[in-house]
Amino acid sequence: MRVIPLHRDDPSDYACVSYWILGENNTASDRNTLIDTGSTNPENLAYFLREMALPSKGIGKQSVEQVILTHEHFDHTGGLPGLEQQFRPETFAWKAFGTRYNAVHDGMFLMVGDQLGKLLHTPGHSEDSLCVYLPESGALFSGDTLYRISDHLGAYPKTYVSSLERLAGLDIKRIYPGHGQPILSDAMGFIRSCLENVHLSLIKD
Fold this sequence. Notes:
globular; 5 helices
């Protein structure tokens, strides 16, 4: 599996980090996947994926065959219309997005690159939040569900606590968050630290 983070450093265009996931050997069974699309600036992803990715995507395959949206916020979904014009990907999300939308359910499996990914409903940041977990490699694409929680001064809904507890029960080796740099070492330590601070914080119904 190859994971390519995509983010255009443009202060006028607030956007998440999108992740382009390809199989290691570009086989026919691989599914070229984009997790989140960034915001509305069409230059954010479409140009790169159209013009720069030709040697990487596999012969006869679209650069993006499917999109997985981790949640509905504009900085994660706004670029979808532009990508649809270029590649007509299928879209998988908890809420309806796109012209080729596929409804998902908790625990659903999809081929992501060359690995089987499990879609986890992890509400808390938003009601429709999803994480994408690849058990074979221990990779987690967490959207905005995981971020560094370094104190216990905040307040969190019970649904968020439950989502973190669920992630803490997995064998996660690498975290690819919606903002910031990937966490490539001691991923479980990062999750446990966040969860400990959340447990010490105000929990809301």
